[in-house]
Amino acid sequence: MKVLDADCTKGFMQLSEDGWQHNYHERNGGNLSYRMKPEEVEAVREEFTYTREWKEIGASVPTLAGEHFMVTGSGKFFQNVTRHPEDSFCITEIDETGTKYRIVWGLVNGGRPTSEFPSHLMNHAVKKRVTDGRFRVIYHAHPVNVIALSFILPNDGIVWTRELWESMTECPIIFSEGVGVLPWMVPGGADIAVRTSELMETYNVAIWAHHGMFCAGDTFDNTFGLFHTVEKAAEILLKVLSVTKEKRQTITPENFRQLQTDPTFSSQFPVTLDEKFLYEKK
Ligand code: 2HA
Ligand code: ZN
Description:
CATH superfamily of the largest domain: Class II aldolase/adducin N-terminal domain
Number of domains: 2
Oligomer: single chain
Mean pLDDT: 97
Shape: elongated
Largest sheet: 9 strands, mixed
Number of helices: 11
Order of helices and strands: HEHEEHEEHEHHHEHEEHHH
Structural class: alpha+beta
Number of strands: 9
CATH topology of the largest domain: L-fuculose-1-phosphate Aldolase
Bound molecules: Dihydroxyacetone, zinc ion
Strand order of the largest sheet: 2-5-4-3-1-6-9-8-7
Distance between the termini: 60 Å
Helix content: 25-40%
Strand content: 15-25%
């Protein structure tokens, strides 16, 4: 089978196009990676070439040894993923030590995986472990409202979680574990990779202040849906804050507890919300 005919490639391209259409990517902003299933690798292996050299990842990910990742290229534009797929992303193979990769498909005009590849791989390693291999997608982009909020809210995941949950009723269902937040950091480096992967032990969302958002998920749809939900909640909150500092009414801690105790609701959407997010506001 051709790589471009595989369902996982179509999902990768669909998310990229959706992200572009949602204004999450300016120029070459953002990056996406997908840990391929062994059967997906076998189905398209006929198109792989093994002529390109092994390169240092810049991180050590022994639990990902031998895995294949579909990943956007450094400097490539999301709007071109569907238009020029072979030029915009690649499939990489990780070596048996988990310290090197080589490109086996794509980036036909040269180039390398995203500058955030070390972050992606360290986060994949965490998510593979904590979800027993279920999570396969890591998505990073630059959504307007989340970035704007990072100039207003403190760099504190507890505050962010509570404020986003209050902004839209579905939020505590969709990200019941909350969101993590990092202060501004140099992009693309080992530090931001390590700090993000620490957050990914607990959360599926990491906010990078003044930069963007990093999301993990099992499928392309769920990962994009999570990203979209957080960004939409941020937009609502920002609109409210633009009008008034005082909310007239809101979703209260007691309301959040009702989500967990209401028999009809909780039987359909069982959710556990950590009390640390339900603090009394002064
Ligand atoms: O791919 O978004 O964080 C460009 C970036 C780096
Ligand atoms: Zn970025």
